[in-house]
Amino acid sequence: MNHLGVGQQQKKTVVCNNTEVQLVIPQQPQNIQYTRQPHVVYCANCNNQIQTHVQLKIGKGQLMMALIMLPKLLCACVIPLLMDDCRDAVHLCPVCKAEVGRKNFIFE
Ligand SMILES: [Zn+2]
């Protein structure tokens, strides 16, 4: 299920070759709540409407889980490091590969 993260659009009139042109500038909402699923958003880098590509990366929360488990269960401390659910979800633009958002595992 995709959440449409497109915010209000801002219109701006510019004069180009003596013709008034109305530009619609997509505005990214300030507080998109990214999940682990791809989102449809405007990329601030290339200004395309894109569906984000989600890449799972090792984050602070995942390392913290491993550290918490380390003194109790030596072998089990690697489990959080191997679990995709414990990773941070990084949303990338498929066009320009810029990071457009992130869902951290524990730390926001
Ligand atoms: Zn982009």
From TrEMBL:
Sequence ranges assigned to domain LITAF in this UniProt record: 21-105
Keywords associated with the record: Membrane, Metal-binding, Zinc
Highest rank taxon of the organism: Eukaryota
GO MF, any single term: zinc ion binding
Keyword presence, Membrane: yes
Xref: PANTHER family: FI16602P1-RELATED (PTHR23292:SF6), LIPOPOLYSACCHARIDE-INDUCED TUMOR NECROSIS FACTOR-ALPHA FACTOR (PTHR23292)
Intracellular or extracellular location(s): Membrane
GO cellular-component term (any): membrane
Protein name: LITAF domain-containing protein
InterPro entries listed in its UniProt record: LITAF, LITAF_fam
Membrane topology, from the record: Peripheral membrane protein
Family according to the record: Belongs to the CDIP1/LITAF family.
Gene source species: Paramecium tetraurelia
Primary location class: membrane
